[in-house]
Specification:
Elements: H1 8-21, H2 34-41, H3 45-58, E1 61-64, E2 68-71, H4 75-101, H5 106-122
Antiparallel strand pairs: 1-2
Amino acid sequence: MIEEGKPLFVQIAEQVEDSIVDGSLAEEAQAPSTNELAAFYRINPATAAKGVNMLVDKGVLYKRRGIGMFVSAGARDLLLSERRSAFADRYVRPLLAEAHKLGLGPDDVADLVREHAAQNASS
């Protein structure tokens, strides 16, 4: 799980986000505590807390005093929207720029994507 070159607290936040996006951590469900995260990943609790606080600042988690952290209502939609936007920036825009250089239009690109998706499905 630990990735070189990326701060641990960011990786912790991403792992919790992944659990929310894939549905294994539902909205309004209790999130793992900083101590649980620290023990699981064998890191300092302050580092885990920094990752959790990042998610609180984004509105993904909220604290119930004396009980713990919980996933906010709408957190999954928020994360999906954020990830779709990042996906477009990272992959779609460069793809369309290169397609334009090659004289391919949006329909041509869509056809190529469908063709390769079908090939991957049959592999």
